[in-house]
Amino acid sequence: MKQIDLFNIKLNHIRIFLLAVETGSFSKTAAELHVTQPMVTKTIQTLEKELDLILFLRDKGKLLLTPAGRELYVQWSNLLQYFENSIEDASSQQEGVMSRFVVGVGYLMPTDHLERLRKAYRSLAENIKVHFESRPQSTAWDRLRNGEVDIIMVSGHILPDEKPSDIDWCILQESDLAVFVSKENPLSRKEEITFADLREEEFIVFSSDTDSRYMQLLNHLSSEAGFTPRISCYVPDESSFAINLWMNNGIVLADQAMLMDDTGIKCFPLEGRGNHLYLAWRIPKEVQRRFELKKVTDAIIEAFS
Question: Which residues, at least 6 apart from 80, have a Cβ–Cβ distance to it below 8 Å?
Answer without folding.
Answer: 11, 14, 15, 18
